[in-house]
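Subject: complex prediction, re-run

Hi both,

The earlier run crashed halfway through, so I resubmitted it with identical inputs.
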Amino acid sequence: GENVEQHPSTLSVQEGDSAVIKCTYSDSASNYFPWYKQELGKRPQLIIDIRSNVGEKKDQRIAVTLNKTAKHFSLHITETQPEDSAVYFCAASLNTDKLIFGTGTRLQVFP
Amino acid sequence: GAVVSQHPSRVICKSGTSVKIECRSLDFQATTMFWYRQFPKQSLMLMATSNEGSKATYEQGVEKDKFLINHASLTLSTLTVTSAHPEDSSFYICSARWGNSYNEQFFGPGTRLTVL
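This time it finished cleanly. Structure:
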């Protein structure tokens, strides 16, 4: 089955800097790669997703890149703000079935 | 649109009792619902997938007789934790999806279960 690894587990950046979180997956059949932001005790919120037919997707300060050959994908957040502080999870799945989540990255943005 | 609710938001029960958690799609018909468990400071782990009117499909290692899932309508799925034990204490989150497997899963707010 699918296995998703995520790094780093914690990430501290200064406000305005960029943050990058990386994930690798094992199942080459996976074709859907969402990223979620989760604040303490709250539901995961989808912030961006990418499907295997594209290599990059951007939405304002957030971008995701996908390298199907290497089976890894990354989340890039530019111009970070304190409100970006949260736990971020990547996930991989075949279509939107059976999301397999990474282990999470705790992002702290210091003012 | 695409709002998913869960009830209760938190529940405390005694060891050995059963607890039922409801997951509702408020403004769309959820043909598929998913149940996840999240232990403190850990990731979400898929427990089971249910399609309306069908038996749930459980992930490996999840006891189907302990975690009873019923997806009786297109807007409601329930998870019953039977004979709960302290190790079942966790954050249980559902998600719902309409239509086919190209569509996004929408997550509920989660239920915090504490078993004493």
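Residues 10 and 96 of chain B are 20 Å apart (CA to CA).

- K.
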